[in-house]
Amino acid sequence: MSMVDVTAKPDAFREAMARGIIKLRRETVKLIESGMVEKGNPAEIAKVAGVLAAKATSQLIPLCHQLPLTSVKVDVNIIDESTVEVISIVRTRAQTGVEMEALTATSIALLTIWDMVKAYEKDELGQYPYTSIEGIRILKKEKAMSN
Amino acid sequence: MSMVDVTAKPDAFREAMARGIIKLRRETVKLIESGMVEKGNPAEIAKVAGVLAAKATSQLIPLCHQLPLTSVKVDVNIIDESTVEVISIVRTRAQTGVEMEALTATSIALLTIWDMVKAYEKDELGQYPYTSIEGIRILKKEKAMSN
Amino acid sequence: MSMVDVTAKPDAFREAMARGIIKLRRETVKLIESGMVEKGNPAEIAKVAGVLAAKATSQLIPLCHQLPLTSVKVDVNIIDESTVEVISIVRTRAQTGVEMEALTATSIALLTIWDMVKAYEKDELGQYPYTSIEGIRILKKEKAMSN
Amino acid sequence: MSMVDVTAKPDAFREAMARGIIKLRRETVKLIESGMVEKGNPAEIAKVAGVLAAKATSQLIPLCHQLPLTSVKVDVNIIDESTVEVISIVRTRAQTGVEMEALTATSIALLTIWDMVKAYEKDELGQYPYTSIEGIRILKKEKAMSN
Amino acid sequence: MSMVDVTAKPDAFREAMARGIIKLRRETVKLIESGMVEKGNPAEIAKVAGVLAAKATSQLIPLCHQLPLTSVKVDVNIIDESTVEVISIVRTRAQTGVEMEALTATSIALLTIWDMVKAYEKDELGQYPYTSIEGIRILKKEKAMSN
Amino acid sequence: MSMVDVTAKPDAFREAMARGIIKLRRETVKLIESGMVEKGNPAEIAKVAGVLAAKATSQLIPLCHQLPLTSVKVDVNIIDESTVEVISIVRTRAQTGVEMEALTATSIALLTIWDMVKAYEKDELGQYPYTSIEGIRILKKEKAMSN
Fold this sequence. Notes:
The structure is a homohexamer. Chain A is of the alpha+beta class. The first copy, chain A, has a single domain (about 15-145), classed as Molybdopterin cofactor biosynthesis C (MoaC) domain (Alpha-Beta Plaits). The first copy, chain A, has four helices and four strands. A four-stranded antiparallel beta sheet of chain A has the order 2-3-1-4, covered by helices on one side. In chain A, a hairpin with a 2-residue loop joins β2 and β3. The longest helix of chain A has 19 residues, at about 40-60. Chain A is elongated and about 55 Å long. Chain A starts with 11 loop residues before the first strand and ends with a strand. Chains E and F meet through α2, α3 and β4 of E and α2, α4 and β4 of F. β4 of chain A pairs antiparallel with β4 (about 130-145) of chain B, so a sheet runs across the interface.
């Protein structure tokens, strides 16, 4: 087993954009919209968690290279009455791409939203029949050689 | 902002089971089945990444408590010609539940599978039109008071 | 060299409260108050960083024990036109106290505020003649035996 | 929320020097001077903690970039009968400055000194009326374009 | 105390190869060979642990620089009826060498093998009279200036 | 793959003692003895690294449980003109033993000594013909039921 050997590859400017959603109960989305979630602001905390996770990717995904990210941006949007979206954009100037970093930021931000609202998502038996994370994808990946 | 205060809660035996899937190209699933993925065995490496991620949950999800997990089990199964499933079961004896740990293990294991096969999932433009992570859910959560 | 041996000590409910301040330029404090800091909300991000740092204390301070924190709360307040205060309250049920966790949360939250506003604090030579962190102290430490 | 985008910035040689002090009881400073602190040598352990913290800055301060530090130096000096000083100097060749790394090294080194001597700083009620960390500042920040 | 200052050193292609062995009971080596170790596949899990450890070296060894590894390869081989060997090869393009990364990968992979088979190595008193890690060495270290 | 399930096991007082040695050139051991190692004091820094590593064991060894260590002690001794010994003693009150923690502390402390003196161990070709880590073993493991 080995990491892909990128020793001989030149640096390039690289960007990746990832997106995913979390399905929540309508009552929960209303609580988020009205700023009434008791543990704090889910969107703000999810964004911080996403940025930190992007930087921790090489410690979480075993064969990922350590890349010095030059920009990480995580956005959280309510897109309908039962759906919250996370979009992450990551940039670097390195020998390999940053799609795993964008995906990791998105995944951890979505999990953080779940954690922030989990008191409202549980049913009377303590289960989560409504909550799910869906559609984690790479929207775009770009590469431009530096000169 | 604060973590939920669980100081006064008694310990209980707790378990959570989470599941999620990754959609891949049929050619990629065949490579996994035949043990031909060049970077190594995606299922094995995903399981290790999932177990480690379960134990790192409180560092990744800002308001999660640090829980001493007494068992973590991560399974990876090919369920049809374009779908791989991850199921994680986490146990503890603690003051709060382990659903975030099971979800984090599942998410990081799924991301690790993506990373292991990303060379086969990209199209000729370097994009990922086929790959997505779907249906990350809690299948079951249990709690039993210890005596 | 060794960590203090607490093997034989009984568990107790423990709490510690720490406080510190950061001195900033008046213009910077106005930007914080009006929500105009370009990188994001310094108070929100500092609170997240503080909570995460409390949980990472035993990895940062070499001889600190690993304690399962049952509550962490970090508050950020503007207390006059050039001063922002951080107060952290940490609780556990463990064999030793949590003053280092409260102090670490406070220190990292203060550093995060600095980082969020550093573009506004630098003078024309790129130096920081105005900015300083002061008065990091333990306000209160409590212990109650559990039964 | 986003990290400042430094993708297009050129690398430069960068250095930052940070300083802070911890106020201790005179008896405690004498114990440090005479090498009688039971848990070990506070200055040595604080220096190690400071160097490691400098390298962990991007995991602690959410919007800090990951910078490959080329030099970290942490000094600990007793400057009068109740004051210990920490000075940290950090260097890199990167797209952005290292002031947060120097401040983080200094803060964690000061907290480590507190931890090492906390048995001697507590009063009979277990409180810390004498101990405080003060004056954490950037003494100097420099930048030179590499060619 | 300080990290060696490599600020002025040029980047070079660097490689290091480290090796070590673990002595085990013959029955244990047979279990590994036949894939009968109950906790999982020791070689696979050791390789993952080794690769992750290589990337964590600067957090574990206090004065190591943070190096962006461009390749990490860990191999595990049974070399006789009571000996398992680990060989790690690490590459980078950086200002200083990667021998500590190769040694750390090797050491953590060997410890992981021990952990995976520890149920079979203990005697009836719960002691480990047979198990030991031996001969951790650098086999080769290379450096080539990049142009 | 799964961590051993210890959910139903009772807590016990547990201790493990591990030992290992590093073989060095005689000139290097003399430099250590005379306090002339330029990067700092190898024994002091190795002890700090060992204590921190003990606490990080569950993040390094994939299937290790997270145990709240109640005591960690690392000693470094020069035992003859070319040999330095590390002995680590770890204690906890938990559901499973701490041999992996003692072994990890010992291994990382030995690697830290290597790193501290590597300038003196290299030959004229930059190789390490003299240096090796040997005999990492568990000297003793104990368990006593708590009441």
